[in-house]
Design a protein that fits this description.
The chain folds into three domains: about 200 residues, no CATH class; about 90 residues, Phosphorylase Kinase, domain 1; about 200 residues, Transferase(Phosphotransferase), domain 1, CATH 1.10.510. It is built from 21 helices and eleven strands. A hairpin with a 3-residue loop joins β2 and β3. The strands form three sheets. Strands 1-2-3-4-6-5 form a six-stranded antiparallel β-sheet. It is elongated, with a radius of gyration of 31 Å. α5 packs parallel to α8. The chain is about 55% helix and about 10% strand.
């Protein structure tokens, strides 16, 4: 384990390096670029709706103002332009719905859509039914200017690209006037008048370029802030009660990893002892995971503190999904697969308990199943942020509860934790019994509308056997073993993870084979 301060230092460039390698601008974060695709989809749908409503309302308004004029039902040139714009908007929407699009290409496509929209607006403004035989050359702001401002805010294009695309867009207003004059619709005097009328759009283009530069710099700043020591952060993978998890890559080894950070608002919203407690819990998670060597405990590569005080640790990047996601997608699991998963969790907990540590937050979301090398359905136990030494409730734990940092999850909480009694590894075995119940039935042991109601049921009520809450076959021995884990008194449960593992292995059922696991993953998650 390297020292924390070392990972926070960036490699120094030699003079030769600085001269030979020109400094490249930072790329925008991939997750921010992917947001552009989602925003463009929304804009395309809104655009299609507006292109339909605007001409329709124009016809109805004409009829309301001129009830005896039958021309309100006639097809206008603006209707044809609007119909083409609807087709383009919907085509863009369905094109972007497909995953795997190159974010850089999507950004260029957004600028192209802006130009096409400006072209349609320029034509409708001057060739549509509002065209007149003569016009006064008064400066005006057309719809093109606001459209450019909107795209500058949602598409983080480099300022140069925004300038070029925006310049083409604002020229469509004068072009529309020229085309209208060539069609004999109206006269506006010298050609320069077409530009004088629309000079406010050119001013808005300048504002759009400034906005584009600001958005691009903000994205590059995010990229810079995500460069943590020897690792460069990528997309956001998820958020939890204590922190955020990002995909990361080692600068030199190109090894994929996951980096967990304390969310800045956790520290900002808590002061004094509460903020210190959050830091303590984060460090405790790192130190506990660093000392565990079971292959079924998530591996910790390093941990440290950034220059601006953000705590982080680097762990292996896992392939697969957590058990909560698995059950939500696929429903209850067959008993032999549940046994296969539980035995691996027992191996992780056995080492932790032997080291005098209790996880205290065993739940499906903290148990990951996926691929490791050539093995499928390989289990990793995650999130040792609530781990503590065996013993009674300490002042620190009391402070955690007072600060809203609940020691555990109510649906999987052992009665002794809820009651503030002495806690040991058997509390994790109770939680693992709750996990087994969830995997076998797809339902929680106890349910309620509020956390306190669920906790009260864990303390007072006896659970219904899992075999009575599922149509899948459950061996009576497994049914009894799960219920024994859920005994209120820790003395009635299996006393160690090794004992629970042994009892699971003694259940007479066909084992879950690697061939079955590989076949399942090929069918359900081939990527």
């Amino acid at each position: 384990m390297t020292q924390a301060k070392l990972i926070c230092q960036r490699p120094k460039e030699t003079p030769a390096d600085s001269k030979s390698a020109p400094k490249q601008p930072r790329r925008l974060p991939a997750d921010l670029l992917r947001q552009v695709s989602r925003r463009l989809q929304i804009i395309a749908l809104i655009g299609a709706g507006l292109w339909f409503l605007a001409p329709a309302l124009a016809h109805f308004a004409f009829h309301a103002l001129n009830p005896d004029d039958p021309r309100w039902t006639e097809l206008q040139a603006s209707d044809v332009i609007a119909a083409a714009s609807i087709a383009v908007s919907l085509a863009l929407y369905f094109f972007l719905r497909k995953s795997g699009r190159n974010p850089a290409h999507v950004m260029d496509l957004g600028l192209a859509y802006m130009v096409v929209t400006a072209f349609a607006l320029g034509l409708i403004d001057h060739i549509g039914p509002v065209a007149r035989q003569s016009v006064d050359v008064d400066p005006m702001i057309s719809w093109v200017g606001p459209v450019i401002l909107m795209f500058a805010a949602i598409v983080p294009a480099p300022p140069v690209k925004m300038l070029l695309a925006g310049l083409i867009a604002v020229l469509f207003d004068p072009l529309g006037m020229v085309l209208a004059r060539s069609a004999g619709m109206y006269e506006f005097g010298p050609l320069s008048n077409a530009f004088l009328m629309h000079y406010p759009s050119f001013l808005l283009l300048g504002v759009a370029v400034v906005i584009s530069g600001a958005v691009t710099r903000l994205g590059q700043q995010v990229t810079k802030e995500r460069e943590m020591g020897s690792y460069r952060l990528g997309e956001l993978l998820g958020r939890g009660g204590m922190g955020e998890v990002y995909r990361a890559t080692h600068r030199m080894l190109a090894r994929p990893a996951a980096i967990k950070l304390i969310r800045p608002e956790v520290l900002a919203e808590r002061s004094g002892g509460s903020a210190g407690l959050a830091v303590t819990r984060f460090r405790r998670e790192a130190e506990a995971a660093a000392n565990l060597r079971s292959p079924h405990t998530v591996e910790l590569y390093d941990f440290g503190v950034t220059e601006d005080g953000v705590l982080y640790f680097v762990m292996e990047l896992l392939q697969g999904m957590d058990l909560e996601t698995l059950v939500q997608r696929e429903g209850p699991l067959p008993a032999k697969r549940v046994i296969h998963i539980l035995r691996q969790v027992c191996e992780s907990l056995e080492e932790a308990h032997a080291s005098g540590l209790v996880h205290r937050d065993i739940k499906p979301a903290n148990i990951h199943v996926g691929r490791l090398g050539l093995r499928q359905d390989f289990v990793k136990v995650l999130d040792f942020g609530l781990v503590k030494s065996v013993g009674g409730l300490t002042g620190e734990d009391s402070m955690a509860t007072a600060a809203g940092l609940t020691p555990g999850t109510p649906a999987y909480m052992a009665p002794e934790i809820a009651l503030g009694q002495e806690v040991d590894g058997r509390a994790d075995l109770y939680a693992l019994g709750c996990v087994a119940y969830y995997l076998l039935t797809g339902t929680l042991v106890f349910e309620g509308s509020a956390s306190l109601q669920v906790i009260a049921k864990h303390i007072q009520e006896d659970p219904v056997p899992p075999s009575q809450r599922t149509e899948l076959e459950i061996d009576p021995a497994l049914d009894r073993l799960v219920l024994s884990c859920l005994t209120k008194n820790p003395e009635g449960r299996p006393q160690t993870a090794a004992e629970l593992d042994r009892e699971l292995g003694e259940i007479q059922t066909e084992p879950w084979s690697q061939e079955e696991a590989q076949r399942w993953w090929r069918q359900h998650q081939p990527a």
